[in-house]
Amino acid sequence: MKRFTIYATCMLILLGCSHADSLERDPDISGEVLEIDAEESRFLMEGPGSLAGDDDGSAKVWFTSKNPGAHKPMFDEDGNDITLEDLTAEDNVKVWAQDEVLLDSDPAQGSVEHLIVLKMS
């Protein structure tokens, strides 16, 4: 039992660290939400970032907000948890992609690891 407790504690620490580490790197894409598909739990966005392979320096990506992890992946600049229902078209967001983004499709497709809704100035 003691061995299991140590193992479980180590796993929780590692999972917590991976959550924080992803926010220390630049977002994969920053830009504007163009469309929300609540039925499929996804949104379409466009903007510059490491996913932008186009000549104009921007990319369109469908992101799904389904996340099997224990942490909440989406929040506002103040750190408040949000859901897909809180997003609106024309919101400015920063997105860190989870795993691989399928760039072969048009638009590209990926899953949200983290999302921050930026305040409008």
Task: Write up this protein.
Strands 1-2-3-6-5 form a five-stranded mixed β-barrel. Strand 1 (about 30-35) and strand 2 (about 40-45) form a beta hairpin. It is α/β, with parallel strands linked by helices. The relative contact order is 0.21. The chain has one helix at about 1-25; strands spanning about 30-35, 40-45, 60-65, 75, 90-100, 110-115. It has a single domain, classed as OB fold (Dihydrolipoamide Acetyltransferase, E2P). The radius of gyration is 16 Å and the shape is globular. About 20% of the residues lie in helices and about 35% in strands. This is Lipoprotein. Keywords: Signal. It comes from Salsuginibacillus halophilus.
Summarize the model shown:
The chain has 121 residues and is of the alpha/beta class. Helix content is 19%, strand content 37%.
